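WARN no homologs supplied; continuing
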Amino acid sequence: MTIPRSERLRITQEVYKQWQEIYGDREDTEAESANWDMLNKAMAEAVEKYKDRPANS
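OK structure emitted
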């Protein structure tokens, strides 16, 4: 199972966009933790989507 590189980039950009809307330019622990949690959740969803995909396709 491999998430395509372009998909990882798309997910990262989308999560950052959503996070920016909520937290703006905050750099405190709560905001950074939320960013990490949002990114991990989105990547876990992508893992499920691509779990049966061969690594080289």
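The radius of gyration is 13 Å.
OK
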